[in-house]
Amino acid sequence: MTRNFFVGGNWKMNGSLSQVNSLVEILNNASVPSNTEVVVAPPAIYIDRVRQAVKKEIEVAAQNCYYKASGAFTGEISPEQLKDMGINWVIIGHSERREIFGESDDFVGAKTAYALSAGLGVIACIGEKLEERESGKTEEVCFRQLKAIASHVKDWTHVVVAYEPVWAIGTGKVATPEQAQETHAALRKWLAENVSKEAANNTRILYGGSVNGKNAAELGKKEDIDGFLVGGASLKPEFADIIAASSQ
Ligand SMILES: O=C(CO)COP(=O)(O)O
C-alpha cells in the first residue's frame, strides 16, 4: 500500500497570537515520521505567520476558500491568493461550514473542483449526523456527499477525504475503530465503483471526531484509516503524540 499517512490539525476559530506562537513551537519540536504528512489549518488571520514560523516538514492549510479568483466577495479568500502566499492545502466542506454557514453538497463539490484547478490540495469533509446514523443512513449520506464532489471532480490525485461523523466532533464520543473502519471501507468501495480503482487505492481517507493522543494509535491501525483530521487535540501538546502514533 502506497498511501502515506496524513495528520491534519484543524484549529477552527481558536487561538490568540501568543497561543499560535506556542503551537508553532510544539509543532517545531514534534518529530514527524517519514511516512507521514502533517498539515495544520490555523484561522485565516494567522495562516501566514504560521507558514513562516513552522518547520518545512509541516504544511499549512486554509480552513475554507471561495471558488473565484478575485472580485466583489466580501470576507472570502481565493485559492489563487492562498497559492500566492505559499499555501498548498485547503479544508472544504467541514460540517460546521455545511451546518452553520449553509454550504450545500453542490457548493462543496464546486469549491473542491475550483481549488484543485488552482493547484491546491483539498481535504474534503463528509460525515453523517447522529439522527442519520441512528436511522441507518450513514452510507446514504456519505455517498450523497461524495457523489456531489465526484460530479465536479474527475482527478482525485490531490483530494484527501476526511470522514468526520458529526456526532463525534467535539463531543468526546469517538467512533470505535471498527465503526470508522466499516465506513472507510464503504467509502473506498464507493470510490472504486464510481470514480476509479486508482482513486480508491490512492485516496487517503482520514477519520475525524474526538481523536486524541490516546485513541489515535488504535484507529490508525485499521486498514482503511489513512490518518486523522483533528480539532480540539490539535490545539494541545498531545497533537505531537497523534503525529507519532501514526507510524506505529
Ligand atoms: O472537526 C474536527 C476536525 O475538523 C474534529 O474536531 P474534534 O477533534 O475536536 O472532535
From TrEMBL:
<dbReference type="GO" id="GO:0019563">
    <property type="term" value="P:glycerol catabolic process"/>
</dbReference>
<dbReference type="InterPro" id="IPR022896">
    <property type="entry name" value="TrioseP_Isoase_bac/euk"/>
</dbReference>
<dbReference type="GO" id="GO:0006096">
    <property type="term" value="P:glycolytic process"/>
</dbReference>
<dbReference type="GO" id="GO:0046166">
    <property type="term" value="P:glyceraldehyde-3-phosphate biosynthetic process"/>
</dbReference>
<keyword id="KW-0324">Glycolysis</keyword>
<dbReference type="InterPro" id="IPR000652">
    <property type="entry name" value="Triosephosphate_isomerase"/>
</dbReference>
<dbReference type="GO" id="GO:0004807">
    <property type="term" value="F:triose-phosphate isomerase activity"/>
</dbReference>
<comment type="pathway">
    <text>Carbohydrate biosynthesis; gluconeogenesis.</text>
</comment>
<dbReference type="InterPro" id="IPR020861">
    <property type="entry name" value="Triosephosphate_isomerase_AS"/>
</dbReference>
<dbReference type="InterPro" id="IPR035990">
    <property type="entry name" value="TIM_sf"/>
</dbReference>
<comment type="subunit">
    <text>Homodimer.</text>
</comment>
<dbReference type="GO" id="GO:0006094">
    <property type="term" value="P:gluconeogenesis"/>
</dbReference>
<dbReference type="InterPro" id="IPR013785">
    <property type="entry name" value="Aldolase_TIM"/>
</dbReference>
<keyword id="KW-0413">Isomerase</keyword>
<comment type="pathway">
    <text>Carbohydrate degradation; glycolysis; D-glyceraldehyde 3-phosphate from glycerone phosphate: step 1/1.</text>
</comment>
<dbReference type="Pfam" id="PF00121">
    <property type="entry name" value="TIM"/>
</dbReference>
<keyword id="KW-0312">Gluconeogenesis</keyword>
<comment type="similarity">
    <text>Belongs to the triosephosphate isomerase family.</text>
</comment>
<dbReference type="GO" id="GO:0005829">
    <property type="term" value="C:cytosol"/>
</dbReference>
<protein>
    <recommendedName>
        <fullName>Triosephosphate isomerase</fullName>
        <ecNumber>5.3.1.1</ecNumber>
    </recommendedName>
</protein>
